[in-house]
Each structure stands twice: as C-alpha cells, then as structure tokens.
C-alpha cells in the first residue's frame, strides 16, 4: 500500500505491473537479485495506492514465518524502499479464499465480469479471476470472520466450489498451474516453470533479477522444465525421482523429479533430454523393481 506501491512492486516482479489499470490483474513471479523465485501468484490492482498479491500459503504448519511468500515480499519491499511511500500489510489468516471453477461462474453473474470487482459479492471482500484451475478461475476473498456467514448464504445446494483442498489440487495439477512451496521455491528460476507467456514480460525494462531472466531467454537453454505427464503403471508421489525408461540397469541420473501428483497424472521437473511429448521414465526401487512408469505429455 502507498502512493509508490505500483513503482516498487513493478521493480520486484517479472510482469509489467505498472501497465495494469484499476481493476486489472496479472500473474507474476517475485525474484531476487540472482533471478530466483521468492514468490509466485496474482497481482490485483485495486487502485494506484493499493495492490493485492494472492498466492499460495506454506503447506507446512510448522514452517517458520520467514518461509512464507507474504513475509518474503514484505522483506523485499522494505529492503528496496528508501524514500518511497510503500509498505506491505500481511493478510495471512485475515481472509479465506474460495475457488470458483470456470464452469460455475454463472452462480455469481455479477462477480466475474473482469479481472477485478471491488464491490462486495454476497459477503465477499472482493472477487477476481485467476488461472489456478484453468482460464477464468474465480476467487472470492472473504474476511475470515465473515466466512461462516458467507458459507451459510451459499448452503442451498448450489454446486459451485472446487470441492475442498483435494479437489483444488487435482484441478490445478491437471491444468498445469504451479503452486509455490510445493512445485517451486527460491531455488528455481522463473523460466523453469513454463509460464513465460503468462507471468514474464521481456519488454518492461529493469527489475530485480531481470538480467538473469533475460540471459536465460536469449540462450534458450533451460536445462529442466516443469511439465506434466500420465502415470501409465503404478503410482508416483511428490519427491519421487524417475530414471529414463530405456535405462536397463537403473543406475542413471534421474530425468524426472515429481513435485505434485494426483491419481494418474503428475507434474514435475523434467530434464532437457525428456522434454518431448511421449518421453518415458520409470520409478525403480533400490532392489531394481519397477514401481511405476510415466509418459511425458508436455503442454500445448
């Protein structure tokens, strides 16, 4: 918040925040001086003095508060604000976020006409559009103290929500939206996530880490990409390391590291040798037993 909020956030993120008008939003990474990702989410511009950053919470309840996206963004803004008027208000725990899948937007016909609606929707503080579970996924951000009332208003049997945390994770994995703390963290470069078109501007000018991002784009040599695939045999889970299917001895370096999995689908970091759709990999036990096989489907 503050009269220089747009300027400061534009200097710390990969997307052209300065080009947003009131009521608009965009996906963006927050980067450090080395071009690594300190955060990832959606930036909503309410006004020239108020921007909202909506991203994932740390799933580890025991994690230090310093590991939260909100805390890191606050630290970055404080570090790179000298005389400017800008400050972060951390809202963790103050709001509940309800995810409305694209097919259920008609339940709230006045809420999602554009990327931002400042007027309340039922008891919602505000509503907006993301791509969490596909294009035009709606979010309703409700003050936590009003959550019970909000849910009671909608308890008439209308099917509109994303069916809880499990349902949300299945949808966003299938749609290919990365979730900070689960799929990426401060060790990753933005281009490794395959979100260049959605979350990176290569024409906005300077920002923290921009030189590294530009070099990666010029060289076109990302060594790993966050891609999706089908589980064709067995089951895989977060953290599993898979080797090339053609490796007969099972001693080669991993070509896939799974970051998210749901039923017969997964997402993870894939080495350059297996970027192409149709590439195969397998999960092998220490005893050499094949536990699972997958096929990279890549992204359209």
Structure description:
The protein has 300 residues and is α+β, with helices and mostly antiparallel strands. The chain is built from 6 helices and 13 strands.
Quick recap:
By secondary structure, the chain is an alpha+beta fold.
Outline the secondary-structure elements.
Blueprint: H1 5-10, E1 25-31, E2 37-47, E3 50-55, H2 69-79, E4 95-100, E5 116-117, E6 126-130, E7 137-143, H3 147-153, H4 164-175, H5 196-199, H6 210-219, E8 224-234, E9 241-244, E10 256-262, E11 265-271, E12 280-284, E13 290-296
Antiparallel strand pairs: 1-2, 2-3, 4-7, 5-6, 6-7, 8-11, 8-13, 9-10, 9-12, 10-11, 12-13
The unreliable regions are 113-121
Secondary-structure element series: HEEEHEEEEHHHHEEEEEE
Overall radius of gyration = 20 Å
Q: What is the overall shape?
A: globular
Class per helix and strand makeup: alpha+beta
In total, how many beta strands? 13
Features:
alpha+beta; globular
């Amino acid at each position: 918040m503050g009269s220089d909020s747009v300027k400061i956030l534009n200097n710390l993120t990969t997307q052209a925040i300065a080009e947003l008008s009131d009521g608009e939003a965009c996906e963006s990474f927050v980067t450090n001086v080395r071009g690594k990702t300190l955060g990832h989410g959606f930036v909503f511009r309410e006004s020239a003095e108020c921007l909202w950053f909506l991203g994932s919470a740390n799933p580890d309840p025991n994690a230090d508060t310093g590991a939260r996206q909100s805390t890191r963004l606050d630290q970055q803004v404080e570090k790179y604000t000298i005389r400017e008027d800008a400050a972060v208000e951390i809202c963790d725990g103050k709001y509940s976020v309800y995810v409305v899948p694209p097919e259920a937007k008609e339940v709230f016909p006045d809420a999602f006409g554009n990327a931002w609606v400042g007027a309340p929707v039922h008891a919602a503080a505000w509503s907006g559009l993301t791509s969490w579970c596909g294009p035009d996924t709606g979010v309703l951000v409700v003050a936590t103290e009003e959550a019970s009332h909000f849910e009671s208003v909608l308890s008439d049997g209308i099917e509109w929500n994303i069916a809880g945390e499990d349902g949300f994770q299945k949808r966003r994995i299938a749609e290919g939206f990365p979730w900070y703390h689960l799929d990426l963290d401060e060790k990753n470069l933005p281009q490794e996530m395959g979100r260049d078109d959605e979350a990176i501007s290569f024409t906005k000018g300077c920002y923290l880490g921009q030189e590294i991002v530009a070099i990666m784009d010029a060289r076109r040599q990302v060594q790993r990409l966050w891609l999706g695939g089908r589980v064709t045999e067995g089951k895989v889970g977060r953290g599993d390391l898979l080797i090339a299917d053609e490796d007969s001895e099972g001693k080669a370096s991993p070509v896939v590291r799974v970051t998210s999995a749901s039923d017969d689908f997964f997402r993870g970091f894939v080495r350059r040798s297996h970027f192409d759709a149709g590439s195969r990999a397998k999960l092998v036990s220490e005893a050499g037993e094949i536990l699972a096989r997958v096929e990279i489907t890549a992204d359209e």
